[in-house]
Amino acid sequence: MAVILGVDPGSRITGFGVVRVTSGRSEYVTSGCIRLGDGAFPQRLKVIFEQLSVLILEHQPTLMSIEQVFMARNADSALKLGQARGAAIVAGVSAGLEVHEYSARQVKQAVVGTGAATKEQVQHMVQHLLGLSGRPQADAADALAVALCHAHAEGVHRQLGAAALGLRSGRVRRR
To answer: Which of 15, 58, 68, 162 is the most buried (most CB within 10 A)?
Structure first.
């Protein structure tokens, strides 16, 4: 059994989702958003770290998966997103979690079947795959999708064998 904490980092809203995977079947545990408001940016990073640390203590995930930075049109936005990711990654690594990173395209491909999926398609598929009664908020759905992407990738890795995929050793893995 694995408990995966998925994170969709953001400098204003960071989505999180926890999924339990047993015998290849994914089960919803919890999800939501860390709303960071308009405070000073260093304080927002602190909130990301602290809130994810609390979630990790509460739900005891066995690993974390997080979305990689994409190139934004605005360099300042990309830098802030990278710093938000850093705060989230440090929360995971500080708790002893192995952290896996996936591109937005990989996440969409794993959950929807196309790397060009819309946010609405991701929300719909997350709702369907986890048997949720309603659509999760977009940032929470993205975080759950990151967790599901890892669950899917792990299933594929077990089937093909890690050596065939050329996995690297280390605490932070890029996919």
So the answer is: 15
Count of CB atoms situated within 10 Å of the CB of 142: 28
Active site residues: 8, 67, 139
| CATH number assigned to the domain covering 2-169 | 3.30.420.10
- The enclosing H or E element of 130 equals helix 119-130
Q: pLDDT category, 171, cuts 50, 70, 90?
A: very low
Contact between residue 139 and residue 84 where contact means Cβ atoms under 8 Å apart:
no
Please report, for the chain, the start and end positions of each structural domain, with discontinuous segments joined by +.
2-169
- Determine the 3-state secondary structure of 2 from DSSP: strand
Please give the pLDDT value at position 156.
44
Question: Which residue ranges make up the annotated binding site for Mg(2+)?
Answer: 8, 67, 139
Does the reported pTM lie above 0.85?
A: yes
How many angstroms separate the CA atoms of 36 and 46, rounded? 10
